[in-house]
Amino acid sequence: MLRLSDFDAVTFDVYGTLIDWEPSIVAFLTEWARKAGVKADGEELIMAFDRARAEIQKERPAHLYPEVLRRCFDRISAEFGVPVDAGQREAFSRTPHEWPAYSDASEGLKTLQARAKIGALSNIDNASLSSSCAKMDIRFDIVVTAERVGAYKPAQEHFDTAIADLDALGIPRSRILHVGQSLRADITPANKLGLKNAWINRPQRLLGLSGEGAAEARPDLMVESLAELLDAIA
User: Fold this and answer.
1) If residue 165 lies in a helix (H) or strand (E), which one and from where to where?
2) Is 15 exposed, middle or buried (0-12, 13-18, 19+ CB in 10 A)?
3) What pLDDT is attached to residue 106?
4) pLDDT over 90 at 1, yes or no
5) Which residues pair with 221 in a beta bridge?
6) pLDDT for 165-196, tens place per residue?
7) Can 165 be counted among the known catalytic residues?
8) In whole angstroms, what is the distance from residue 184 CA to residue 230 CA?
9) Are 76 and 49 in contact (CB under 8 A)?
């Protein structure tokens, strides 16, 4: 059993966990497919995106997230055999600023922050994360982005940096709970680092649930929402 009283910090994956990005990506790619004459459903398109981003995020030096999205668009276009539409490519790179927060994100984070430090460990750029934090009306106590560390989860840099930031605040790793929706990018690396973790398995969402390392993920707790997590650990 996980209890909030056992932790002094709760760190979060953001996109998929707190920000509901997947429907927006599906909607964008579905409209692109319609205009391009591509015969693919939403699941095919989101999984093409998931495969593309997993590969692109391994490249070093790491790209900022808008460039990751541009390169994903290129690979998706190539996979479905259509020319790259430059305007749509650029529009896709700006979509993080439009992705909405889950309805339980703002209240849940504020409830937690009244009792513990909260952190964001995100595969995103600083500007996009700022937009998302404004949507959630929250300011995290520590923030680790891909832009800050020059790498993307499941690479270890996010976690090492967060652990160091919290250690500087007097919080040891044994008192950190990590929360994420992605098995691949969050639960598996948390397992490897010995971090207690909770998997928010948002219903009808697919990103991050397959690919390298996902099958080895062993969450300490599985819930379907942040509200359910709070009920479980309170």
Assistant:
1) helix 157-168
2) buried
3) 98
4) no
5) 198
6) 999 999 999 999 999 999 999 999 999 999 99
7) no
8) 23
9) yes
Alpha carbon distance 195, 234 (integer Å): 19
Say which residues have a Cβ less than 8 Å from residue 221's Cβ, sequence separation at least 6. Answer: 2, 197, 198, 199, 229, 232, 233
Model pTM greater than 0.85?
A: yes
Residue 62 has pLDDT above 90, yes or no: yes
Q: What sign does the dihedral 121-145-137-53 (CA atoms) show?
A: negative
As to burial, measured by CB atoms within 10 angstroms (0-12 exposed, 13-18 middle, 19+ buried), residue 87 is: exposed
Q: How is residue 229 written in tokens?
A: 């997590």
Instruction: Measure the N-to-C terminal CA separation of the chain; round to a whole number of Å.
Output: 11
Buried/exposed code over 175-197 (b: 16+ C-beta within 10 A; e: otherwise): ebbbbbbbbbbbbbbbbeeebbb
Residue closest to 171 by CA, chosen among 5, 6, 8 = 8
State both tokens at 199: 């998997």
HSE-CB for 202 with a 13 A CA cutoff: 25
212 has a pLDDT exceeding 90: no
CB contact set of 41 (below 8 Å; sequence gap of 6+): none
pLDDT of residue 18: 98
Size of the chain in residues: 234
Q: Is the separation of the CB atoms in 72 and 49 below 8 Å?
A: yes
Question: In whole angstroms, what is the distance from residue 156 CA to residue 190 CA?
Answer: 9
Q: Which of 6, 8, 13, 41 is catalytic?
A: 13
Provide mean pLDDT across the span 55-64.
96
3-class state of residue 149 by DSSP? helix
